[in-house]
Structure prediction request, 342 residues.
Amino acid sequence: MNRLRRQRRPLPTGTVSADSQAFLVADIGGTNARFAFAYRDDPVPQSIANYAVEDFPCFDSVLDQLQHDWGVLKQSEAPFSHVCLAVAAIPEQPEISFTNNAWRFTAESVATRLGCPNISIINDFAAVARALPALAPEHVESIGGGQVQHSKPMVAIGPGTGTGVACLAFDSQGGPIVLPGEGGHVDFAPITDIEAKILSRLRAQFGRVSIERLLCGAGIMNIYRALADIRGVPSEHLTPEAVGSAAQQGDDSLSVETMNTFFSVLGSAAGNLALTLGARGGVYLAGGIAPRYIDLLRKSDFRARFLAKGRFADFNGEIATLVVIHPDPGLLGAALMCAESE
Prediction:
């Protein structure tokens, strides 16, 4: 039996016209696939289910389960008016092929299965970026100084199963313009001698080394094992969760150094994005890792490395860095994009 992890929310009430058709939104990453529905008149996503990718051998099988779960929730027989899938993949591919899971599908196959010809496929961090202006104060945690300036470019970077990056800019009327990309796959540039030694070991293993080789769950293990080799000590932990937990407890110096290195590299990468995009609207840390380890993030050199840009340290000093603690920013962003296209 599939082990389904669901986040249920109440059905929408009051603000939706009787003849409105629901649209389906999804946030599909390397570990989880979250599905929700919303309406043009009420684009706050309402959860259908959160599925573990490892529980489903192919995308058709998760659609089978989705259709069953939607059948339990739906209030009418009408098909979805629009389907928007935010994917941790290149959305322009003829066949969607995920970077960090084995699922494959096409827009045509999804349209046929769901009986909805209106299919949009977007990058998962494009959806996160679109959600940024809609986040309430309780959905973010500030890390360090800086100010969020209204209608200025905003950047999302998210270490999780992989590393997502996207930007949000604004037109002359204040309308949002999402700028997706594959910023998680830019080159890793070491700053310290230890990072240079880590790079040397990762280069021997992978050839080219992107920031995603360090800034994700598997990246934590890459850093941990490289540091163990550099320090000449055994690597006892087998998962990033174990490394993170040991670092939080503070009784394992190798794990503490690993997590500080992780957040230091993240600070450098976030600072580079701030410089490149002039992100005076803020740099936002999303994904699954930063919200889980906010205590380690605050103790780390993250903000110092964000600011360590030589003559442009003051430029970055004016830019806010924040952790997104909203449970489903990808679904929120996908729903907003869906509503805007209706």
The domain at 4-124+330-341 is CATH 3.30.420.40 (Nucleotidyltransferase; domain 5). The chain has eleven helices and 14 strands. The radius of gyration is 21 Å.
